[in-house]
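Recap from last week: sequence in, structure out.
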Amino acid sequence: MNEILTDVFNGSFTQQEAIPKAGIDAALAVLNHGRLHRYNTSGDEIAEAALLEEEFASITGAKYCLAVASGGYAMTTALRACGVGHGDKVLTNAFTLAPVPGAIAAVGATPIFVGVTQDLVIDFDDLAAKFSQASVLLLSHMRGHICDMNALMVLCNAAKVTVIEDCAHTMGAHWNGTPSGRWGRFGCYSTQTYKHINSGEGGLLISDDADGMARAIMLSGSYMLFERHRAAPPPEMFAQIKYETPNISGRMDNLRAAILRPQLVDLQTQCSRWNALYRSMEAGLCDTPGLQLIVRPANEGFVASSFQFLLLDWPPAAVQDVIARCRLRGVELKWFGGEEPVGFTSRYDSWHYAPSAKMPKSDRILAGIIDMRLPLTFSKEDCTQITRIISSEVGSVWKNQISDKS
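Predicted structure tokens:
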């Protein structure tokens, strides 16, 4: 009890760093001239949204980029641009967040959930077994864990399955040197507050596919102003598409784009800072009895804005005890094994609009996943304290409730 009273973490798991001064200055400039709408420009002015698209395309190596209202909107737009519609089925990860199956449902399609491995990536065996059910995979790089993308693309190309990447947690990450989002037909990113660049809400969509991106731009609400996009297909690509593509407005405004552009400049520096915190967490927890760390392959150039570990095969009551004990000491852990969705954590069987058969192998993994935000407002010293608290409480519960019974 004395340890609980004296060793308490007082930091915030939801406090992000301030927007950089360059972003604040750029935002004030937009507010001062009032031209927030991306197509509202003066003279030869280039809209902030168009510049952001051009810069993000350059960073990722993509031919085309579209700035939109959210990461979820980026996914629904990618699905629509790939021709997915009412009554279709789309493969996706069982371990993900609600906006991913939500994007599939939003276009009238049905998610087909694919299992998760102990490395927290999509299960290739389960994926191959379900290829016959759908022609599109919306692949979630959930919590920044990237599967073997070379192997995945071989499988999907052989099965003629189109890949759309959900890169909400992998901006700045890569597999074997190729950025996340550059493997499939589309890459979808989020700029929501808890992601790698922060505009509150927002999204980015990249592609090398001219037809698909032309459709995405029309879907986003470009009207006949598509020529004002700089990281876009040539105007002739819109000749027929402009007549047959509905306007489902979801544009990013110039204010958010202005806030984001300076953050892009610092992206790799920020990614290195996140990974330093992640490695501190790993080092502090590596010898904790009953706790399993996630193996990060050498080819995975990950970006860690969160941290996960497994309490694999623990009784639910013991997992809940660890979470409650850590909470009393100021450490906020989330659990993906709960029967009821809490906050942003939910399981594939929580989404009743997308019924699915039980997946016992994946259920075992989900029941053990513990998740923690890792904001850049934390220091390495904070991580040392957090891991000390987690290790202490996991060790206590392991000793008192589990190891003696095994």
